Amino acid sequence: MPTENIQWFPGHMARTRRLISENLKKVDAVIEILDARIPLSSRNPEIRRLTEGKPRLILLNKASLADPAANREWIRALSGQSTACILTDCQSGAGVSSVIPAVRELLKDRLDRYESKGMKGRNLYVMVTGIPNVGKSTFINRMAGSNKAKAEDRPGVTKDVQWYTTGKGVVFLDMPGVLWPKFENQTVAEHLAMTGAIKDESQDTEHLAVRLCATLAQICPAALEGRYKLEPTKGRDPYEIFLEIGRKRGFLIGGGEINTERTAAVLLDEFRGGRIGLITLDEPPRAEAEEGVPNAGLQS
Asked: I need a labelling partner for 232 at 20 to 30 A (CA). Which of 56, 63, 77, 110 fits?
């Protein structure tokens, strides 16, 4: 099945670009929220370019759904000068208490200057960015201690910028989450769709589920086979694996035909919910990464 079938809607990137440019001078730092399962694929290169020069805190969100060893490697790869990286799970609240201390540490020099000028207690202002469905609104609600930011498990909910106070000396500016206008790498598009960053309504979900079978059979066959009690998947056609999952689950319609629509929906839902296993789709860069390896484009 051809990967060209993957479709996406880029959102209003031009509008978001303008909003970032207009508001960047108002903030001291930028929080960039990534999906820990796809840290590279979920990083909008346009937003990274627009916010270049500001101290940055990267949140690897949904970390409880990702491979712990990969999480550690991605923290190493994403941390750098003027950039810190921490693990969070905004749905459960894990790691969220570390955010404000991390912001204050990142901006320690600025806070010291404020204090030397008798401005102790002055608020820090932080822009929050991230692609759709990465958990940005849930993060804002956790930090603001309210449900003022609309949080739904579907992409593209936040439409406008809005300030949120925390009562802890940090004020957050929530930016709309959008995808970029063009994916040069089809694997990036697939990973975004598999994790739910691209709306299912715009996808051929059966094709996407088959591509997910191919990916999981390659990177974590034991987890896939164990979850669905499959025959060994190595070297098998991913569509056959997909059909076997439907048969094992009893998703049959008239004449013993497999209900592929239901099979696709269940497979995608169980992957996104972590029920197949703790899986990271984006391979962490090697420590000795050189030009041409993903690590080369990660630093801010």
From this structure: 63
**CA gap 139, 282 in Å, rounded:** 23
| Class of domain 186-272 as given by CATH | mainly alpha
Report the pLDDT averaged over residues 164-172.
91
pLDDT score at 293: 35
- Mean of the per-residue pLDDT values for the chain? 86
The token pair at 84 is: 């810190």
Helix axes 205-219, 186-195, angle to 10 degrees: 100
CATH of domain 3-182: 3.40.50.300
Nearest to 30 by CA among 57, 61, 59: 57
Q: Return the exposure string of 223-251: e unless at least 16 CB atoms fall within 10 Å of the residue's CB, then b.
A: bbbebbebeebeebebbebbbbbbeebeb
Cα(165)–Cα(143) distance, integer angstroms: 8
Report the pLDDT value the prediction gives residue 285, as an integer from 0 to 100. 86
**pTM for the predicted model, two decimal places:** 0.86
